[in-house]
Amino acid sequence: MICTCTMNPSLDYYMEFDKGIDGNDAVNRSQLEYYEAGGKGINVSIVLNNLGIPTRAFGFVGGFTKDFYISLLAKYEDIRPNFTYVQGHTRINVKCSANGQWTDLNASGPIITPADMENMQKKVSSLYSQDYFVLAGHTQEYLMDATEQMLKDAIKEKVKVVLDTNAELVKKILPCKPFMIKTTAAELPSFIDSEVNTEEEMIAGAKKLHEAGSRYVIVTNHSRSAILVCKEGTYRAQLTRDEKYVSFVGTGDSLIAGFLMNYMRTNDPLDSFRFGASCGSATAYSKGLATRENIDNFYETTKVEKIA
């Protein structure tokens, strides 16, 4: 079983404008509006759903937005919501598109109480050995210690922990040998306390994370390419082929989903990396997250090359 966790989910309200947005006390009217259930862990679950893989979705939701948020997940038959309900309102993020550019207005989200966090810890403690637990997205600073202990307990029970979250938290978990760390070239300096300006420096940083304890380390480079570091070596896969991509949002989440889906079946990290990269590409060239049809099309043209 794969379980995903989004510590601060969002109800994403998309607004698309044919013309630019005028900020000088003007009234701007959108041409299209729609809602999506947002959050990096939820993105992983959605792509896995599109691949026919069931997941349990953990996270904190509450308030007047809770029921609507959960209803948006009902169209995904392989996502099984298992949220912790809180008193505060699930945040609403506004995402505006105009002239091909996106502007995000993100809320901070509800306060999570110690009792809420204890509820979450109990859910995670129910996972079995060899289950996968994907913590993706920002972890609130005041929940850091409790989340650290939750992750350490899960790894102790041989749960395969995948992390795409705050560097501070990841560095504390590395000695426990998590299954995978996913990050970006822009975020990597906060993991290794040194600058990353070249691909060589990115690879060196990824190797540090691998040597520090993570079995697999994946770093995306401006969503154009991805690097995998593991005991078999260092590998590169392209995520975009040209400048005609639609959006980079969700490419990393899609990569995680594809890697895990393939790895569960093959235990082959290289083919899993190739399949994961094809999922990332399918998302980059889609309006929304990758579908199975798009993924299969990109898999044929996705290549993994070993870096000396």
CATH homologous superfamily assignment of the largest domain: Ribokinase
Compute the number of structural domains: 2
Would you list the SSEs in sequence order as H and E? EEEHEHEEEEHEHEHEHHEEEHHHE
CATH class of the largest domain equals: Alpha Beta
- Spatial extent as radius of gyration: 19 Å
- CATH third-level topology of the largest domain: UDP-N-acetylmuramoyl-L-alanine:D-glutamate ligase
Biggest sheet layout: 11 strands, mixed
Number of helices: 10
- Total strand segments: 15
> What low-confidence regions span 5 or more consecutive residues with pLDDT below 50?
none
Mean pLDDT: 93
Structural shape: globular
Q: Quote the distance from N terminus to C terminus.
A: 35 Å
Strand-residue fraction? 25-35%
Helix percent reads 25-40%
